[in-house]
């Protein structure tokens, strides 16, 4: 099976950690004997990028025979559907459905319009995958597949906290809150909210806030094993990969109620799902500090191992091909 993958997020020399989850997913599909070519374009930079992506896709489709065009992020589906020869599946991840947040912390008018068009595209493609149920509920299309992106359980393994801190040079006696984001200035992530929540603990707990930003993807597991808790303060998410990675490392999580975190954290202790109030988040962090232990999260993500998630996506691919064969037989 040969797949052409279009995406608006992928690593670049200046953003090597971008969409690391998608890179791992492509690797898992390749190991499952799916031949994949990737076209990456930056949708927000310039309208000309869409034109170049369309030309690139057209040239690629002429050079090889593809079975599936898979668009990751709704913006990429707009390009993918400009051709009618190859079936199209789109995976929605979050902001492509929820909208784009501006620097003022509010959803922008342009972002709302783009997400509206992105959602409409679900009616024009052959199949739809969403990474969490709440994204599917926002689409005009009623039939879709819920497949969260997976986690590399070999890479995100449990390392003793003391050993991880020695490697990073962190003090052993500090309660370390980890904030992980590719870009700390991204208004969706609300780093300032995390800072305020931690600030409220400084008089009563020996706390420190560490950031995992701009790191190489292979360095993230060590940070998670060295920290005491992951703090996620996003205004919205799809199915946050960082939460699944923290679970795999048995790192407790305190977060806002976004995406599918309630499902992911069901039965996981210690940890807390809080409102966007700094005091509530600070209290969640205090509870983790008082517990003094790691979480039981790793067992929760066993079903999200990369090979298992890849197999579910391949099932969608085969279903699309079978539908195409039936349609051709009828015509």
Automatic annotation (TrEMBL):
Residues 23-155 form the Glycosyltransferase subfamily 4-like N-terminal domain. One of its GO terms (molecular function) is glycosyltransferase activity. Pfam families: Glyco_trans_1_4, Glyco_transf_4. InterPro entries: Glyco_trans_4-like_N. This is Glycosyltransferase subfamily 4-like N-terminal domain-containing protein.
